[in-house]
């Protein structure tokens, strides 16, 4: 990079704030076991898949007699899945930790994600290289990828390369599927007798990798602040121009945490929460009617404008369409190369239509052709429909427009409807991390180092009490298998980490439900502005609103 912005240069000088325990010498940090954590369901099957990893306790790091830190470690690191702000700081915390244990320790970065481990493509990360990436966004230090390590051949090649490089440990930085990779690798290495500690780090801007121990995944804070700035700008534009309804689709394939946080940050007129729609068994027509009624109510006040937030994964939560997608997935998986050889568009639509049962075939036919085509596109490497490429916001615009014309004919709507559509996705993944994410990610990397020093393989780094200042954070780790269940992928039963959805009985959603009717009719939007990196902590270091609500902070 030939020229850096002033902010880029200034961020190098930022020193992440860390839990107080991290200031202790490494031999004075102890891994204190707590209760044994087991999965909520599928216990026997998971135990059979992970016999050496099942039934381990959670740990937290406290002052005490730890392990000697004289050994020089060779540690591999993988960035897996889509980028999330702060990934470079995870690597920085890991690097600083292993170098503190022994300056001769080495950090090996596998290039291009998990495939780098399989194919033996790597580079050594040194201090000079890392200094160019501290406190910056992106995953470009070594690149990322979405390869899933699960076949016997992939596992064996990973094992061979780990042994060849003399790895003492491997750190996988990623989301639910990526950390499932880490659990499979850990179990395989144990079965092969390889002394390689495998540790995971929770990454996903979607915020769906969370539980009692993992309070938030890294990248979520930065992404929601980026999106909220943009939404706030649009809210101001909407109330200035007073002529458009803005339909804004946000990242969040499997959960609506991003939509919920951005709603708190900006107070839009409508924020759809996918989990609520599924729980209420709402049809597409009912969702459209809800939006149209709100538009009509504002039009009655002379306000023919507004802002609507739509979660990226909404379409998979509408029960009738969820069933349709599941059937399409089965058809694609069963057809294999026969389907893959078909050209996109009419040929794939016709093939799918010919295989669907009559009821879902009728629903499929009613959808716009563009949406039909998008539902038929190739699945991602994990077998998921690529919902970011399904233009749900445009589907809603088309159907709402149709409904408003009907209401106008009925005399129940007298306004004018014009619109703009937006999708905020990639804009939030590689921003300079917020101070929260810069601190959190560095601490996650350092926690990963401590898990390695204590030989805790099959664990994921976890830090608690995140609504408090960093010095009060509680670092530790939990066994990855404890987060898993069995799901159907590519037509087969697979062990995967269970996604954390918006809890409709949780404090954040209940707080949202109490105010959304007021927001629907109000134009008193909240304008959060851009991420602030310098200034008073009340501006620069404040964590996500939903995290504060969850912890009564």
From TrEMBL:
**Which principal EC class is assigned to this enzyme?**
transferase
Q: Where is this site: Important for catalytic activity?
A: 203
Domain called Phosphofructokinase: residue spans: 75-350
Q: Which Pfam families match?
A: PFK
Q: In which pathway does it act?
A: Carbohydrate degradation; glycolysis; D-glyceraldehyde 3-phosphate and glycerone phosphate from D-glucose: step 3/4
GO biological process terms on file: fructose 6-phosphate metabolic process; response to glucose
Q: Which domain of life is it from?
A: Bacteria
Q: Where is this site: Important for catalytic activity and substrate specificity?
A: 177
Q: Name one GO cellular component term.
A: cytosol
Which residues take part in binding substrate?
204-206, 243-244, 251-253, 312, 426-429
Q: What is its main location?
A: cytoplasm
Record text on activity regulation: Non-allosteric.
The catalysed reaction is: beta-D-fructose 6-phosphate + diphosphate = beta-D-fructose 1,6-bisphosphate + phosphate + H(+)
Binding partners and assembly: Homodimer.
What is the similarity comment for this entry?
Belongs to the phosphofructokinase type A (PFKA) family. PPi-dependent PFK group II subfamily. Clade 'Long' sub-subfamily.
Question: What is the name of the protein in this document?
Answer: Pyrophosphate--fructose 6-phosphate 1-phosphotransferase
- Protein source organism: uncultured spirochete
Ranked from the top, the taxonomy reads: Bacteria, Pseudomonadati, Spirochaetota, Spirochaetia, Spirochaetales
Q: Which gene encodes it?
A: pfp
